[in-house]
Amino acid sequence: MMSNIRLRQDILDELEYEPSIDATNIGVTVDDGVVTLTGHVHSFAEKHTAERVAQRVKGVRAIAEEIVVRLPENKKAADDEIASRVVKILGWGSAIADLKDIKVKVENGYVTLDGTVEFHFLRTAAESLVRRLTGITGIDNRLRIRPVTDVLDIRHGIREALKRNAEIEAENIDVEVSGSHVALNGKVQSRHERAVAERAAWSARGVTAVEDHLIIEEPLDPRNT
């Protein structure tokens, strides 16, 4: 098992290696694979990236992210100005077409998104667009996915998407739908296939939760048979 000291150094090295953030003022502590990030950065985008960088380091089991955003004076903006920017950038995003169902609130640079969207990817796309803005100190994504009542339609759509994808064996995956919740059961041959199957489930209209019970079963090496 990797030592806390070694894991801490690996995370510090990875943060330093990441070109999109200034890791000078980021602190890292490790306790049995649980990582705590502290200190401050100059933008919310850097804060988000720092957490993502730490997550990709081998040996990390969980992350407590306590980084504070300290905006430089020339990056600070009034809440009404930030709110206007949020509305504009959501409007520019071609995927975010139905703005009337998205409510924006800004308090001390902290942006809250509320309302409903039809797809999971719209929920994540909205947050991704807002994250790029300067002047924000945080995001609370409260967007909910508008559920669809036609269970058979959801299941059929996911099954067809799996069949079309050349990267996975669709016949080895069972799709169960209860309301707007999807459960994936069966076997795949890699983490990548598992991620592709999960993405197909989330891409269905109205899906609000996906339970991934897929088992990764490595293909047999013909040299060992």
Structural overview:
This protein has 225 residues and is an alpha/beta fold. The chain folds into 3 domains: 4-69, Histidine-containing Protein, Chain: A, CATH 3.30.1340.30; 73-145, Histidine-containing Protein, Chain: A (2-Layer Sandwich); 151-222, Histidine-containing Protein, Chain: A. It has 6 helices and 11 strands. The protein has helices at residues 4-17, 44-55, 79-92, 120-131, 151-164, 191-202; strands spanning 26-31, 34-41, 62-65, 68-69, 102-107, 110-117, 138-145, 173-178, 181-188, 209-212, 215-216. A hairpin with a 2-residue loop joins strand 1 (26-31) and strand 2 (34-41). The model has no long low-confidence stretch (mean pLDDT 88).
